[in-house]
Amino acid sequence: MTGAPGGLTSANLFLEKWIPMIQASEAYKHDGLIIVTFDESGYTLTVNSSGGFVISFQGQTCCSEMPGPNLAPYPQSSTFGPYTLSFGSYGGDRTGAVLLSPLLKAGTVSNVPFNHYSMLKSLEDNFRTSSYLGYAGQPGLISFFGSAHSDIETVEVNH
Q: How many domains does the chain have?
């Protein structure tokens, strides 16, 4: 927490300013949803034979996540002089999220694994779109607002 741009201190200052302003809006009070999320991919760093570094990202997936369209086959790597970036898969590894909404019971916690398409499906459910985009419509995909899993609390939605 150095306070450098993009660091945790800056992120906290941004959230302290904007979250209360959004929560005060009529749109948020009606059926709003704020998702604060991060994606901290795990990686390994090794020294290669030329004295450069190889940074490898495993890209673990979960929850039947599928690769997005137009992606080249994995694994992928790019070399820049003595430095190499290597990507093992299309996944973003484990992430975390905090959801704020008048539709959610305060203190609700879920240990159900969700993926990026779950978030998209949840947004589309919240805004009652007529259909799901891409993999958000795949059979069995769980949204944040409902699940067959017993370890997620049921959320009452009043529309």
A: 2
- Whether 41 and 18 map to the same domain: the answer is no
For residues 94 and 135, state if they share a domain.
Answer: yes
Are residues 119 and 129 part of one domain?
yes
In a domain, 159, yes or no: no
Identify the residue whose tokens are 């959004």.
22
The pTM score is 0.61
Q: Do 10 and 36 share a domain, yes or no? A: no
- Domain with 66, as residue range(s), is 32-144
How far apart, in Å, are the Cα atoms of 50 and each of 46, 76, 86?
Answer: 12, 20, 16
Q: Centre a 10 Å sphere on the Cβ of residue 144 and count the other Cβ atoms it contains.
A: 25
- The SS3 of residue 100 is strand
Kindly give the confidence (pLDDT) of every residue in the chain, 159 residues in length, as a single tens digit, with 9 standing for 90 and above. 555 666 778 888 999 999 999 999 999 998 888 988 876 666 677 887 777 777 777 766 666 666 666 677 777 788 887 888 787 766 666 667 888 988 888 888 887 778 778 888 888 887 788 889 888 888 888 888 664 333 334 444 433
